[in-house]
Amino acid sequence: MKGFNYKDYDGLGLAELVKKKEVQPMELVEASIKRIDSTNPKINAVINMMYEKARVMAINEQSGPFAGVPTLLKNISQEVEGEPITAGSKAFLSYRAKTDSEYVRRLRKAGVIFLGQTNVPEFALVAYTEPVQYGPTRNPWNPNHTPGGSSGGSAAAVASGMVPFAGANDGGGSIRIPASYCGLFGLKPTRGRTPVGPNFGRSWQGASAEHVITRTVRDSAAILDQLQGHEKAGAFHTPKFEGSFINAASTPLNRKLRIAFSVSSPIGTEVHAECRDAVVKSVKLLESMGHDVEEIDAPIDGQKIVKSYLMMYFGETAATLTSLESILGRKVTYRDVEPSTWLLGLLGKATSAEEFVLSIREWDKAALQMETFHEIYDVYITPTTAFGPAKIGELQPTASEQFLIRTVGQLGLGRFLKKAGIVDQIARKNLARTPFTQLANLTGQPAMSIPFHLTKEGLPIGVQFMAARGQEGLLLQLAGELERSDHWIDVRQNPLF
Questions:
Q1: I want to staple 448 with a disulfide (CB 3.0 to 4.6 A). Which of 79, 187, 194, 245 is the partner?
Q2: Angle, vertex CA 439, rays to CA 437 and CA 443, nearest 5
Q3: Quick one: 237 and 371 in the same domain?
């Protein structure tokens, strides 16, 4: 098409061009490849290219609402048969996926074309993307800063115009945090809404959900329509949304909402003034739209939420390391993974079954508290993060912490660290930057980050909106209206777009 600019269109916009035969899928694939090849050396978002498979897919006729649209998959859980899936770790370098994940199958039916996989921190464990195996992914708004994690590679790819949307998942904020840092829209669906199989029936005990990071609300909504639905292996099942999410995203709200908001960290740590300002800006806009807004904290114990989240975190890491033995054909050692990962595994092994079960019960208590809260308040708003994007390397363990981690890892002294309270100190330091997102993962609620603020340094900061379980439609309705406001950040303002 004469004058066609690939980056000007979101996914549905590209699909419409294909449907009208104004462009061919192969043209979109080549435009995306050109963009990846020119931009990826600057930000390191894509670590496995699948160009030839994409070209074959582009030749074959596609069907579905996203027919012919290029995308990227996250390098953990979103498996393509025969392709490596390393989860950011050298330990998985020899592994090849034996089958497509259900997530990939559903996106194939929607007509998308997979061009590759995006960078993740090892085992998707932290909120920044700097794996030893692949190196750091950089933020397209400022390459000296992180795009967040664990879906940092996907967010950086979308924010730099490589693809209109990219695969992501969220077990503690891994969709919302990078969406916030990269000026994008990120929705974590209700537990059980999207598939996690067939190899697993639950991911991170149900805390983690699969979806995408997008530039536009309507792309997120339309993809959720394609992903939702019952799966055989699923341990959790959310009733199918009556109607369609894409319609919800374009339907104006016909009632006044009662909205609660808070700018206080649930664990009592500092919240940067600009993160608070982003929430206040959104609150003023919502009040001008006629909604009732009240400042009130969620009725949960933030310290218990963090502790129960960490208990799951430790246990899941230990289980992942044990599962590696079948791939490596031997026992796993601390040399197979990054030191911090090995330490988390040791802490998991030092955790009793009793402690693990008691921590899961805290999830259910919090879920009841939030469901009751949402009987009064339709939406709960907080900052997405407590600080803006950190600089590359800033969140890595200090020299003394690295020495401690190596020593404890080599000697297997996880139980000692746990009893000494050192783990709580390290955890508090890391979660202090991102204390708001874990709640929705443990309660199973939907939550979204919207791009609503730029710092004085020109870096994006998101605002988080939560709703009762099953209420993605309401969040998408609200997001659709906010997207049309002057406060919504246009990612095309960033220097690398």
A1: 187
A2: 135
A3: no
Q: Is residue 204 domain-shared with residue 76, that is, in the same domain? A: yes
Residue span of the structural domain in which 314 resides: 302-376+396-431
How does strand 258-261 pair with strand 379-383?
A: parallel
Long-range contact set of residues 481-484: C-beta below 8 Å, sequence gap at least 24: 481/252, 481/253, 481/289, 482/282, 482/285, 482/450, 482/452, 483/185, 483/216, 483/217, 483/450
Q: Is residue 127 part of a domain?
A: yes
Dist CA 226 CA 340 (whole Å) = 37
User: How many of the other CB atoms lie within 10 Å of CB of 186?
Assistant: 33
394: Cβ–Cβ under 8 A, 6 or more apart, which residues?
146
Q: Which two tokens stand for residue 173?
A: 């904020």
Q: Following DSSP, what letter does each residue of 393-406 receive, concatenated?
A: TTTSPPHHHHHHHH
Asked if residue 479 and residue 401 are part of one domain, the reply reads no
For residues 414 and 421, what is the distance between their CA atoms, to the nearest angstrom?
11
Whether residue 1 has pLDDT greater than 70: no
Catalytic residues: 74, 150, 174
Number of domains in the chain: 2
Burial label for 288, CB within 10 Å (0-12, 13-18, 19+), is: exposed
For residues 422 and 357, membership in a common domain is answered with yes
Please state the pTM of the whole predicted model: 0.97
Phi-psi sector, 205: left (phi>0), alpha (psi -120 to 50), beta: left
Whether 435 and 347 have beta carbons less than 8 Å apart is answered as no
3-state secondary structure (DSSP) of residue 76 = coil
CATH of the domain at 209: 3.90.1300.10
426 and 344 Cβ atoms separated by less than 8 Å: no
Q: What is the mean pLDDT of residues 388-413?
A: 80
- Each residue's pLDDT tens digit, 180-205: 999 999 999 999 999 999 999 999 99
Give the pLDDT score at 414: 67
Q: What is the per-residue DSSP string for 99-164?
A: S--HHHHHHHHTT-EEEEEE--SGGG-SSS---TTT----BTTBTTB---SSSHHHHHHHHTTS-S
